[in-house]
Amino acid sequence: xRITELLTKETIAMxxxxxxxxxxxxxxxxxxxxxxKLSDEATFKQAIHARESQSTTGIGEGIAIPxxxxxxxxxxxxxxxxxxxGVDYQSLDMQPAHLxxxxxxxxxxxxxxxxxxxxLSGILMDEDVRAELLQAKSxxxxxxxxxxxxxxxxxxxxxxxxxxxxxxxEKGLVLAVTACPTGIAHTYMAADALKNQAKKMGVPIxxxxxxxxxxxxxxxxxxxxxxxxxxxxxxxHVETDRFDGKNVIQVPVADGIKRPEELINMAQDTSRKPFxxxxxxxxxxSSNEKxxxxxxxxxxxxxxxxxxxxxxxxxxxLMAIVFLFGENSFDPKSGQYNEFAANLWSIGSESAFxxxxxILAGFIARSIADxxxxxxxxxxxxxAVAGGSGFLGGIIAGFLAGYLTEGIKYVFKNLxxxxxxxxxxxxxxILSVSLTGLLMVYVVNPPTAWLNNLLLDGLNNLSGxxxxxxxxxxxxxxxxxxxxxxxxxxxxxxxxxxxEGNAAAITAAMVGGMIPPIAIATAMLIFRKKFTKAQKGxxxxxxxxxxxxxxxxxxxxxxxxxxxVIPSMMVGSGIGGALALGxxxxxxxxxxxxxxxFATDFRHVLQTLLAVVIGALVAAxxxxxxxxxxxxxxxxxxxxxx
Length: 642
Fold this sequence. Notes:
Layout: E1 12-15, H1 21-34, H2 41-54, E2 58-60, E3 63-64, E4 67-69, E5 77-87, E6 97-105, H3 111-123, H4 127-135, H5 139-153, H6 156-166, E7 174-179, H7 186-201, E8 205-211, E9 214-216, H8 221-226, E10 229-234, E11 248-251, H9 253-258, H10 260-267, H11 293-322, H12 339-369, H13 371-386, H14 390-411, H15 422-462, H16 467-480, H17 485-499, H18 504-526, H19 533-536, H20 539-547, H21 555-560, H22 562-582, H23 594-597, H24 602-626, H25 632-641
Parallel strand pairs: 1-5, 3-6, 4-6, 7-8, 7-10, 10-11
Antiparallel strand pairs: 2-3, 5-6, 8-9
Helix pairs in contact: 1-2, 3-5, 3-7, 11-12, 11-20, 11-25, 12-13, 12-14, 13-14, 13-15, 14-15, 15-17, 16-17, 16-18, 16-22, 17-18, 18-20, 18-22, 18-24, 22-24
């Protein structure tokens, strides 16, 4: 596809009146919208600003390339504008920007479009092109300039990368990987800057691009073995384990554009300390920038949560569907028994839900220690479930398994080469699984069991004294660990009381257990900018699970941010439980949520729903207010994990 199929007269604004960065964005967005390229102008502008908040798209040399991929784009397009006077665009070289190309791509942009956008990025690295565009007097002249250089650049860059890498040279082969958050502009501009500079220096180079269309010019094992050094210019995660033992330079993608000569010289400096691979999330040992402890923990935790989420949603929805067949349709002893419903319940409750905590722990451990940590993480998670530690125990198990495995790897790093093959298959799994398992059994789980017994005794003493206090305590306990030992202790007590003819406890427990997922979903609706796109995708599933009395829908959020989620949910659930009992609401079924609430007396329906709504709103508002806005680091991690 030619660039001028995306850049047309209708999307060109020759002389911008803008004097600020925001005004440039406003004018170019308006140009695209007037050309019929956008379906939602406001949403697209918001996406452009979101991209700018990650890092400026003012790449220097008088160029800015604001860009975004979003469903608000009707068809892929490029808008062009220029300012002879220049605009302070907060560019990388701190110089005014004169040429502006705004790239609008739909969320599922076709590969041909992405190829054209990549070609444009490469063309703009040519100083002559920039000079010609700045002097252009008409839209036709702009299109002619682009067309001329489009012909010259047709597929030249990718071929040059391979040819240059294979050329005979006394200088060592340099490899590079470039990647930016959207994979549209900076990825290819950094690649072209490195290739052009390498050509000037007579250095053979090959550049792998991790763009929106996937990986191109993939670096082979043979090339990596031959390379004197590898440049990783990326703002998102790329696979680095393959570079173990090599001279690796890790920098932001912008550095690949603005200081290619320095990076190439560093890549050829064989005296640098070699990179030691410790998993896909590790950074170069030669990097001056170290991740903070909080960011590291957050990143490991998010890897566990993101892999756990599909199990929570699928299992929860299947369990909710079962109640459409009857509140006891999964119980063979009930007259409502339905074999199909029972199978759905088994898939959701006995399979998907049973895997939640082990998967959480396993992927936290894998994030820390790579593949060798996965087995011990899974085992630690299973023991957390068996020992009553719940998802909090699973988090502990994940970090415990991960760092224990790292320690074991360190202890055995100097074994003779003949034992190298035994490490991942025998030494690491046996030691990490056994040590993690023993610590979970003897150290982590016992305190939780003691707390459970203490709580059960306390609940038994409360039940006969103050009905609203009972509702407050039971409701709050349902939200402490959302399916873990505290939650189960409250639920067991409530069901035991129901068998004795007392429905107050199960009413408070059910209301308290319904509130967390509903509150989380409500918070995401009210405070939309404080949540990632992936998180907001669980709004509807959380409402469904909450209404179905499946508290576990809130676990991914509690696991990712326990110090804010758990207290706010406890307050909301406690208030909901207290209100329900104070208003005289009584539910006569042990499970089912909204499905069994509507099976009760109409007066009880209104009282129960009022308690759920008030409790959920209180929890949602508290959580939304105390939750900070997403930082740049959190947005990057979320995008990487997604």
